[in-house]
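Dear Dr. H.,

I hope your travels went smoothly. While you were away I took the liberty of generating a structure for the chain from your last submission, since the lab meeting agenda had it listed for discussion. I wanted you to have the full record in hand beforehand rather than looking at slides cold. The sequence, exactly as received, is reproduced here:
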Amino acid sequence: MDAIRRFDFEGLLLSLEHRAPVTVLATAEAGVVPFVLASLRHRLDRTLVVVVPDETRLQHVVEGLQAFEGEQWLGLAPVVTFEAADVSPYREVAPPRALAQRRVAAGYRLNLGLGLAAVVCTAESLLTRTLGPQLLDRATALASTGSNLDLVELVEVLAAGGYERVPVVEDPGSFALRGDGIDVWSPLYDRPVRIDMRGDDVAAMRQFDPETQIGDELGSYLLDLVLTPAREVRLEPAALPEAESRLTDLADQLDVGNVELQALLGEVRQGHVVPGMEAL
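The corresponding predicted structure, in token form, is as follows:
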């Protein structure tokens, strides 16, 4: 507690409540910082966005905050990260799928305040583009127990959002059709969900173990399931002309042949995301 007294906690709280800029210079033991942040979060009663200098500090703050925060929404962690994509925008390499999915999930939950105590991010991560709130909302599907669900339409939404269709769901951002429903792993959750259908309605939704493919006897049943996109690039029909124009200009600059260009444009028109498109 001595470390906390080195600065005016109540003054800091008051400044944050009134959205007034404030600078605090203080030193503290490593374990004290998450405690102070958690105290601020509980007093302010709103989601915190915590910016740290590097990945090492990020993990330390996340682990510390998790010790003070309980689950606020069934199946969702109360503290998440928003990390920088460690891929140069000038290389034809897509960021790792898992990283892109964590960024999308954090952005969606921050936008809605969905069971979220804090988002911890590095300064570098704030410089990289991601899906905007409106586009992210349009690209997200919702399933609710007892409500109607069109599986054909859901599969189209999942495919457009970057989900991979697989025989067995073992990784986030994938789905598998079954005779009586669908298994899907949304980036928001730490486990996949089995959606059981009764006709055109959702009979039940239950999380299961991706290794054993079965749920525990006390498995987590969900009333609502949020299915965000599984990548940070989405080709909306209205954006296709601009994307084609940028690709054509870039091809001219790089002296790319017409055959290769037309093949690439064909992929884009079909809604396929090609490596490096995140940089457009």
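Two observations you may find useful: The CA atoms of residues 52 and 122 lie 5 Å apart. The chain has eight helices and ten strands.

With kind regards,
E. W.
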